[in-house]
Amino acid sequence: MSETKQSFLSRGNLLLAAVVTLGIVLPGVARRLLGEAGYNDLGMVVFVVGYAGMVLVVWYGWIRPLDITGPAE
Hints:
By secondary structure, the chain is mostly helical.
């Protein structure tokens, strides 16, 4: 009757939060700084590449390995 309690702050959840935060915050700050320096188009490219990279990392690391299938007949 011993139940294992899983903490919300597990290693996987913390890593996911870090990847998502860094994938949005760092490209956003870089885009802002480049925009203020007069390189608005380059800043936009940096943000899009950073955000897309974060999406790919999340997909490859957490979503792709899930076995999402319907019930077997």
